[in-house]
From TrEMBL, chain A:
Entry GO MF terms: benzoyl-CoA reductase activity
Enzyme Commission identifier(s): 1.3.7.8
CDD domains cross-referenced by the UniProt entry: ASKHA_NBD_benz_CoA_BzdQ
Protein name: Benzoyl-CoA reductase, bzd-type, subunit Q
Domain ATPase BadF/BadG/BcrA/BcrD type residues, every copy: 41-291
Domain of life of the native organism: Bacteria
Gene3D superfamilies: 3.30.420.40
Alphabetical list of SUPFAM superfamilies matching this protein: Actin-like ATPase domain (SSF53067)
Keyword Amino-acid biosynthesis listed: no
Species in which this protein is naturally found: Aromatoleum toluvorans
Keywords for this protein: Iron, Iron-sulfur, Metal-binding, Oxidoreductase
Automatic annotation (TrEMBL), chain B:
InterPro entries recorded: 4Fe4S_Fe-S-bd (IPR017896)
Tree of life domain: Bacteria
Chain ranges of the 4Fe-4S ferredoxin-type domain: 14-46
Gene3D superfamilies (UniProt xref): 3.30.70.20
UniProt protein name: Ferredoxin
Length: 301, 94
């Protein structure tokens, strides 16, 4: 069989619509070698893993990628991704803090801290000391957090029992609609009238309900809008359990989806605090900042 | 800090809240640990280095079932955990 025939008869490549953009960034205006204390936060989540480097208490760089099939390798790969770009070695880092569901499996971490505390600390850095209510929409769970002006948690609630209102739920809808995940938010507004939210709060049932809506004549955009609205209603009910204070901030991958964020803002009647920093790194950033504080305390002794 | 452990599903909201500020210097000598027939509580060191009670991770997704025996239908007039916790740190949402 020649190459042309092989190419023609090969199965078409399956497009992964759910695949979100992995990214690496570092501050090119600074040199990490000038820093006195370098700390690192590693957030091994159920869907994504991030490594964040903090130099003297300031964000220096990060790498965000999809979690692999085990936590130790995911942590190593996330950190290696940023260290390779800037010519850093593990020995150059003074302190490493692990967080996320895989936090106890970060082999080179000096300490593990829950993602609840880390997200609050990260949000405090990203959104400033006015942040009081944080909604973390993670890969497979959702957290509502209250914090004080220093980013210390005062009240929290987590729902990790079902995937409704999480990043994984959005990935499922993306694949079902065969629309790249980054386009879901903008497309959800491209509808003539805002449809009712899908009624189910379970991802499995929402999937079958979405298919039913398509058969009933809904456009894809209308189905996406209905799902974004359902997700917004779901997380708002979670937030209402602990109450919402001014200084609202969203972390996690879903914060990049305007279709959900704008609907949450509409339901709550408040705007979220904007940031230029990637919302997905909040947990790892908070972990690195915890590491910096611990290093300062050690130095003071 | 108010720590809420539990979940919301199609049947309702099931959260056990623990006020860790009241829990740190427990005046009841950690009576919740023995009072709960399901042994749902344990003492941990939290992220801010305080020793407090929490609901065991494996129990947080089945509160509606695990706590059912201690509700009025089970013959109790008061929840054993909240009764034992004299500082009033433990609350049930349902």
């Amino acid at each position: 069989m020649n190459a042309e025939v092989a190419a023609a008869t090969a199965a078409p490549e399956k497009k992964e619509f759910w695949r979100w953009q992995e990214n690496t960034w570092y501050d090119e205006t600074k040199n990490w070698k000038d820093a006195k204390i370098i700390t690192c936060g590693i957030d091994v989540g159920s869907v994504s893993s991030q490594a964040v480097l903090v130099c003297d208490g300031e964000l220096y760089g990060y790498n965000s990628m999809r979690t692999g099939n085990n936590s130790p390798d995911s942590a190593k790969n996330a950190l290696q991704g940023i260290m390779d770009k800037i010519g850093m070695k593990l020995e150059d880092i003074n302190y490493v803090v692990g967080t996320g569901y895989g936090r106890v499996n970060v082999p080179f971490a000096h300490k593990a801290i829950t993602e609840i505390a880390c997200h609050a600390r990260g949000a405090n850095y990203m959104g400033g000391n006015k942040v009081r209510t944080i909604l973390d929409m993670g890969g497979q769970d959702c957290k509502a957090i209250h914090c004080d002006d220093k980013g210390k948690v005062t009240n929290f609630l987590m729902n990790d029992k079902c995937a409704a209102g999480t990043g994984r739920g959005m990935e499922v809808i993306s694949d079902l609609m065969q629309i790249p995940i980054a386009e879901l938010g903008p497309r959800s507004f491209d509808v003539e009238t805002e449809p009712e939210a899908v009624s189910s709060i379970c991802v499995v049932f929402a999937k079958s309900e979405a298919l039913g809506l398509l058969k009933a004549g809904y456009t894809k955009n209308m189905v996406i809008a209905a799902y974004c609205q359902a997700m917004a209603e779901r997380v708002v009910s979670l937030l209402e359990r602990i109450g919402v204070e001014e200084g609202f901030f969203i972390t996690g991958g879903i914060a990049k989806n305007p279709g959900v964020v704008k609907r949450i803002e509409r339901l709550l009647g408040i705007k979220q605090i904007d940031t230029k920093i990637d919302s997905q790194i909040a947990g790892a950033l908070g972990a690195a900042l915890f590491g910096y504080t611990l290093m300062q305390k050690q130095a003071a002794k | 800090m108010i720590a809420n452990y539990g979940y919301k599903d199609g049947s309702g909201e099931y959260y056990i809240s623990i006020d860790t500020d009241k829990c740190i210097d427990c005046a009841a000598e950690r009576a919740c640990l023995k009072a709960c027939p399901q042994q749902m509580f344990e003492i941990i060191t939290d992220d801010y280095d305080d020793e407090v009670a929490w609901v065991k991770k494996e129990k947080t997704r089945a509160l509606a079932y695990d706590c059912a025996d201690c509700k009025p239908a089970g013959g109790y007039t008061g929840l054993p955990c909240t009764t034992a916790c004299t500082p009033g740190a433990i609350k049930h949402s349902w």
